[in-house]
Amino acid sequence: MAAPIVVAGAGPVGLLLAGELRLGGADVVVVDRLTEPTGESRASTLHARTMELFDQRGLLAPLGVPPNDPAGHFGGIRMSLAGLPSPYPGQWKVPQTRTEALLAEWARGLGADLRRGHELTGLTDHGDHVEVELATPDGPARLRAAYLAGCDGERSTVARLAGFAFSGERADKEMLRADVAGIDIPDRRFERFPAGLAVAGRRPGGVTRVMVHEFGRPVGNRAGEPEFAEVAQVWRRVTGEDIGGGTPLWVNAFDNTSRQAARYRLGRVFLAGDAAHAQMPVGGQALNLGLQDAVNLGWKLAAAVAGWAPAGLLDSYHAERHEVGARVLANIRAQALVLLGGGEVEPVRGVFAELLQYEAVRARLGAAVSGLDVRYDVGPGVHPLLGARIPPEATRPGSASLLRPARGVLLDLTAGRWADAAGPWADRVDTVSAEPVPEGPLAGTEAVLVRPDGHVGWVAGDGTGVESALRRWFGAEGSG
């Protein structure tokens, strides 16, 4: 039996990666030191691009229809997301507990081996495999892995043990956050007071989430999470309200740390999600960035295990996602400056508020926040969709249902002219006849090659020929 791919971390990113790997035919073992999920829903927003990815994998039906907020923000300044070019504009409010449960059930259903109470304590990359050391309920254990993916969060054990280098900026501002039962305070959306910033939102079951930042308050060296008494004290100083009589369900602090791994790959070890990049969780971008890392990495690792990955495919994970991560971190740093600054940033906030009245500005920033602006360098060509996600409604049938198996798709838009072009890659690429939507982005296009992650890898008549593109993304003919 071939060695499995080991994924460290059973949060949303690790679970989505596990499912992607299983769709690609790779055996996968997910290890997590916790015996049960935390039950905390720190991240609760899914953006448009993530909803599209969930649709591609058939996950929206079991998810149901979550509440949608068409109003996002940039640095706490209201910004409509209703006009985004996606079937899923806005911010979809899904508790992290629900996302984790959904992805765990999906990954297990596909055959992923999820081992809770298994803590990764050591690793050695031997060049042709990775040896993983674990602390388990039955004592120390070793596991031979084809590859290891660290999806174990900001304090990643995998990153530390493998020797990944990071660069970035230290935190100088902090927000306190808690879910509190038994309090009755007004809902607030980034309300600014003379002493600080406060957010409050009532959630189902009578629980209120509060977040508070006190202007000028230094960031301490925390050994653990703050006490609820500290949150209540800061909340009183900023808002004048007393929430100390409430019952905290969980409490944490987050700051404006911004750091990124210099490389997302070292040999047979990869990082994804917060293990690869740490950022302030503004507007849910951190979770969504990590989930999109997983979809980019999964099919490439599975291809390597299956034996058909062309040269450079695994390295393209770093090349593509590191650039995206750097842009998102810059976006978040800009938002943190506008959001957490005191009176000195009010002129800047005024300029942003004025600019956000323009549709072009809202569209540009909304696409960045929602992950719809990602475009990879996939080779020669100038077609506007080359390297970008294929719009779900650009063809009939729509692309989402065609991508369910996480295979490549050659869309023949000529009713048969390209039917045999991908024949030698039929074990990895499906050829589907489709009709472009009139006056849509593919009108007048004969054929499009779509990667398993939904990004366009080739467009007919633009750049290289189809055989060259198929070899670049799906290896040599018959190698599968």
From TrEMBL:
Domain FAD-binding per the UniProt entry, residue ranges: 4-330
Keyword terms, alphabetized: FAD, Flavoprotein
Cofactors demanded by this protein: FAD
Name of one Pfam family that matches: Rng_hyd_C
Entry-linked InterPro entries: FAD-bd, FAD/NAD-bd_sf, RIFMO-like
GO molecular function: FAD binding; oxidoreductase activity, acting on paired donors, with incorporation or reduction of molecular oxygen, NAD(P)H as one donor, and incorporation of one atom of oxygen
Tree of life domain: Bacteria
Signal peptide: none
Entry protein name: Oxygenase
Protein source organism: Amycolatopsis australiensis
